[in-house]
Amino acid sequence: MMRYKTLGLVTLLSALLLACASDAPAPRSLVLQAQALQALPGLPSMSASVVVDRVILPDYVKRNPLLERIAPGELNYRDSARWAEPLGEALPRVLADDLSALLGRSVTLTKLRPQANAADPAWLLWLDVRRLEADAQGQVLLEAHWSWLREGQGEKPWQHGVFQAQASSRDPERVAQAHSQVLADLARAVAGGLRQGQ
User: Fold this and answer.
1) Which domain, by its residues, includes 65?
2) Which CATH number does the domain housing residue 67 bear?
3) Per-10-residue mean pLDDT, the chain, length 198
4) Coil, helix or strand for 5?
């Protein structure tokens, strides 16, 4: 008899736990978005292809939950808000879209890279993201190194930049918008470097 009471109690507790779990809201899905950017003035015409070729992200950035830096050596992952796709996929694509708007021409990803043209080698962007994170107040920081290389030619000097945007609140959607803003700021710096390198 005692065994049946215990079994009934376990069943009841399991049902209660399942009910509580089903009431928990699903994590919010966040996306990086290209910004409405104007083409840079005074760009020389160029026929060479422009390709976002290599993008390196730190492993801690590649996780899907939205992250916050809560102390110099400590991160917090917000399981209630997640990126809808891995940033390793989203960031290069959105950067290419931002660069397309700034340069007034199509910028492709390495997956869609056109055939090499020895007469007019492509411009290849290499990007090394060192930090991409929000703090507990919703300020997003992006630190990166980048270089434009002409396909088949020597390496160009690397550039470095730190970009910040303040979200209007800690709401995940606002923090995601600030991520998109710092990426657009990076795109402006990167596009300016290509103009100087031509």
Assistant:
1) 2-34+46-197
2) 3.40.50.10610
3) 51 56 74 94 81 95 92 89 95 97 92 69 94 94 96 85 96 96 97 75
4) helix
Eight-state DSSP code of residue 42:
T
Instruction: For residue 153, give the DSSP letter.
Output: S
- Predicted TM-score (pTM) of the model is 0.83
Cβ neighbours of residue 5 closer than 8 Å, sequence gap 6 or more = none
- What is the number of structural domains in the chain? 1
Residue 97 in domain: yes
Supply the pLDDT for residue 7.
47
* Identity of the residue numbered 136: A
Closest by CA position to 81, among listed 133, 29, 144, 153: 29
Distance of CA 45 to the CA centre of its chain: 29
Domain assignment present for 40:
no
Contact (Cβ atoms closer than 8 angstroms) between residue 77 and residue 69: no
pLDDT of residue 13: 57
